[in-house]
Structure formats: structure tokens, C-alpha cells
Amino acid sequence: MKRRFLLLSTSLLVDRVLQHTGLIKSLATHGDVSVWASSYDETASAPSWKNVDAQIGSFPHVRPFRERPHNYLRRLNEFVWDYRLMLPSRVSMQKHVRDKRLPGQIRALKLPAKLLAYGGTEQILENALERLLVAYPRSAEAADRLAANKPDVVVSTGPFQFEQPAIFTAAKRHAIPTLAYIPSWDNVSTKNRMVFKYDGYIVWNEQNKEELLDVYPHARQVPVYVVGAPQFDVFFLDRFKVDRATFCSQQGLQAEQKIIVYSLGSPNFLKEHHGAIEMAKRVKAGHFGNVQLLVRPHPIHDNAEMRGIFAEFGPNVRLQSTPNAGRDLIRRTQDESQIVDWVNTFRHADVVVNLASTVTIDAAICDTPVVNLDFDPQPNRSDQTLIKDVNHRWNHFKPIAESGGVWLVNNFDELENAVKVYLENPEMHKAERKWIAEYVCGRLDGHCGERMATAIADFVKNRGSKLEK
């Protein structure tokens, strides 16, 4: 009897893995593969999904929690665990960001949460909350589709997101085993809590596994597979590589001139574009000689709001285009040409500038020097303390920022100097960059997708065992 695997995707970061790595092809050797993806539109051609060797379907409709007790209890549970665990990343985020936005009725939950945490009742509360949420049907469509075509496993690739936990509850009610793939190295220590207990987990590296076991006690009783970082497999595949001349021609750049890439994070978190504007001013003024600046917006969060900002700086400053601009976040995906843009941006950059983002890893994989802001580029410096925390306290980024593999700078003059030095001496910190890539990715061979497929197949075959990979 053929196995049936169902994978969920509600993010272009996971679409990359499903569409452009060996995961699906390898998993298909073990059985029939289906994907429910929020970026797939059955009424459109969906070209980015056309070559995927799986049955692709749209993501089921999911309704929000409308009953206030559910929302209040979810927030209470998060506060209880935050007080219990005191993770530096979560404490910092709460202090500098979330507390400023909390409505009074949610803030009032902090005192009872503190008492519950000190009383050691966090697991009792979460168990009760899980039972309540499993009984709350958020997707009748998912329940019907699972009943009609029951898979051997549902693989959630977004267990911290809004949509996918609704599919978990439907699977739970149909007694379908579930696997949670933790899709990024920072999720365990920064995201809101996973309330549901999955039957197994897939993580990038050994550090992620240790964090998972510490933060989620249930994970100690189920399989946890360490497979590497599948989303970076594309950096090792020749079909996504183009030479410098081709890349520069596509981007409106000159192949003979050095390229500084300023990569921006989510504008919902930090206002980093002020730093890119200052860099553009200095490039235009000739501070770096005859170089080019390519500003790369975040592919998930870019809404074309910066298109007019960088045009005034002349031909040596370019804003990389994002075809997804304006589209709903969960509808965004990337075809092969966009993967080529992504991979070759970091392959052909001479220096990358960013602020504590995952593009540090992109650059390290390509052995491209990285300058990391250790200051707030906004004129009012309102997030200065938060940025210091991200670099020097947050669980996932502190080892990277303090590894010696990135050049930390405290103001724009230091930024200018670091870029100039790296342009002249690109071999500086080479060994440290290699350490960063290995520390985060675990494996640097381009086969993490295949290992993830093996983990999924192994889980189905050995469901209920205590085997750890």
C-alpha cells in the first residue's frame, strides 16, 4: 500500500523548499505527495508550481478565533511560558516592542500569568488550552478534505503561523499523525508559543534541537530530526547560478564595478531603510570610489513603497525589483528567475550590509563579507537598545554577531570604513564566515531537502518510536 504524504505551505520561504529542492522528488519515491499551498490558485496557471512532482491544491479556508476566551487564554499561556522560561529574545521583544502595543485587557493578564508561572502550572494550563483549541473547528474545508483523502502524515511547515495550526486540529480529530517543520533558526526562541503537541519535529541544526527540547518538554518524547537548512540548497545547485556579467546585465549593473548589497529586513520590525538611504548618499558622493549599491527589499514584506526613494541617487544605486510587491503575504511565491536573482545577488556581491537578518547566512554561504549594523539607523535612534539586544542578547543571533564573522559597526562612519576595508581585503574573516554557515545550516552540501524527505518517510514508517535523527 502506497504511503500518502500531505505537506502544508503558507510562506514563500517554504515554497522555495518545495518547488526548488530535491525534497518532493525524493519523498515521491516513498509514496504519493500532496501539497496544500496558500500561493497556489486553482483558477490561475500557477507557473511556479507546474513542475513540482506532487498533487498541488489550494490552502483550505481558515477562520479566526472569534470567541474572546480562546484569545485571552492563548495570550495568558504565552505570558506564563515567557515568565517561566525567560528567554532573552522573548524578554527583549516584549520589553521593547510588544508591551508598547498591548491593549489594557491583554496587559492585565500579566499578573495572573506571573503567579501561574511561579506556581509551576504552565504545563497544566497549556494541556487544557490545547484540548480547548483542538475542539474549536477553524477549517471545515480542511476537515472534509482530510476525511475524503486521509494521508499518513500531515507536515506543518508553519506551526507558528496563523493558518496551519487550524489544519493540525482537523488532523488531530481524524487521528492523522502530524510532523512540525521548524522553518527557520530563530523560530523557537522568538515566535509566539506552539500550543499543539506534534508527533514529531524537523529542525535545521543541533542548536535548534536543543532549544526545542528545552522550550517544549513534549518534544523529548517524540522523534526530532536534524536535516540541515533546506531553503539554502538552491545555493549549491548549478541551475540557479549565472555568471557575473549575466547577473549584472539583468540588474542594470556594471560587471566591472564592485557591488555593495544593502539587504533590508521586515519594515514591520525595524525601519532599516534609513541606513540604505545614507549608504546611497555616500555612494553618490563618491565615498567608496566607483562602486554600485544594490538595495534588496525583503521578499515577503516589500510592497514597492521604496520605488521612488532611490531613483534620485543616479545609475550607481539600484533598487532590486520584487514581483510580489502588493500581493497578500501568504499568496507570495518565487519562480526560478526570482531564485536566480536571490542566489546570485549574494554570489556576486562584494560586500553585504544588513541588520541582524538571515541574509547574513546567505552571504556566509557564498563567502561574501558581511557588515552588520549594531546601531539604529533611524534619525531619532528610537530602537537603539532593541538593536543592541538583538545582536548581543537574542538567542539565535548573539553567536553570529559575536563570532568575528561579521563586522559590527556603531555608526555610519564605521560602516563606511568597514565596507572600504572589505572591498580591498575580501579574504578577511573567511574562516569565521565558514563557521557561521556551518553553525546555522548544519550541512552545506545542497541535499537538506532530500534529508527532510528521508525524515518524513522514516517518521511514517516508524511512527510512535523513540528514534531520533
Provide a descriptive summary of the structure in words.
This protein is α/β, with parallel strands linked by helices and 469 residues long. The protein has three domains: 3-64 and 138-232 and 447-461, Glycogen Phosphorylase B (Rossmann fold, 3-Layer(aba) Sandwich), CATH 3.40.50.2000; 68-130, no CATH class; 242-441, Rossmann fold. It contains 20 helices and 13 strands. The strands form two sheets. A seven-stranded parallel sheet has the order 3-2-1-4-5-6-7, sandwiched between helices. Strands 10-9-8-11-12-13 form a six-stranded parallel sheet, sandwiched between helices. The longest helix is centred in the N-terminal third of the chain and has 18 residues, at 68-85. Residues 464-469 have low confidence and may be disordered.
Keywords:
single chain, alpha/beta, Rossmann fold, 3 domains, seven-stranded parallel β-sheet, six-stranded parallel β-sheet, 20 helices, 13 strands, 12% strand
SSE arrangement:
Elements (H helix, E strand, L loop, with lengths): L2 E7 L2 H9 L2 H5 L3 E7 L17 E4 L9 H18 L2 H9 L7 H4 L2 H9 L3 H13 L5 H9 L4 E4 L7 H10 L4 E4 L5 H4 L10 E3 L2 H10 L8 E3 L17 H8 L6 E6 L9 H12 L6 E6 L20 E3 L16 H13 L2 E4 L4 H7 L4 E4 L10 H9 L5 H4 L5 E3 L2 H13 L5 H12 L6 H14 L8
Parallel strand pairs: 1-2, 1-4, 2-3, 4-5, 5-6, 6-7, 8-9, 8-11, 9-10, 11-12, 12-13
Helix pairs in contact: 3-6, 3-7, 4-16, 8-9, 15-19
